[in-house]
Amino acid sequence: EAQLVQSGGGSARPGESLTLSCAASGFTFSNYGMKWVRQAPGKGLEWVSMISESGTNKYYQDSVGGRFTISRDNAAKMLYLEMNSLKTDDTGVYYCATWDDGYRGQGTQVTVSS
Question: What is the rounded CA–CA span in Å between residue 37 and residue 22?
């Protein structure tokens, strides 16, 4: 059974850092571009960042560029999102997913508040 299991997240103050992890199993992880999306309270899903199958190409939403870093370890079947200089607007539930939304993690809450 294909699965994406997330860990990390939690609470942080503005300016602090958090890292999200996503463990893949049951499918050929290295064949898929991956992404992180988020849902802020009362809003729809928003694309945050994407990484190509090999990890060579990375893309970021303008609001997180320069603060967030997406990475992957294909040997370990892991996806990461390092979030620095967090802002209150970064609050939401974060999901890892394959680029085509074929598989999605369970979601993890990130709350940024002073």
Answer: 12
CB 95 within 8 A of CB 36: yes
The candidate with the shortest Cα–Cα distance to 64, out of 35, 27, 90, is 90
pLDDT tens, per residue, the chain with 114 residues: 999 999 999 999 999 999 999 999 999 999 999 999 999 999 999 999 999 999 999 999 999 999 999 999 999 999 999 999 999 999 999 999 999 999 999 999 999 999
Report DSSP letters for 28-88, one per residue.
Answer: -GGGS-EEEEEE-TTS-EEEEEEE-TTS--EEE-TTTTTTEEEEEETTTTEEEEEE-S--G
CA distance 12 to 96: 20
DSSP bridge pairs for 101: none
DSSP one-letter code for 89: G
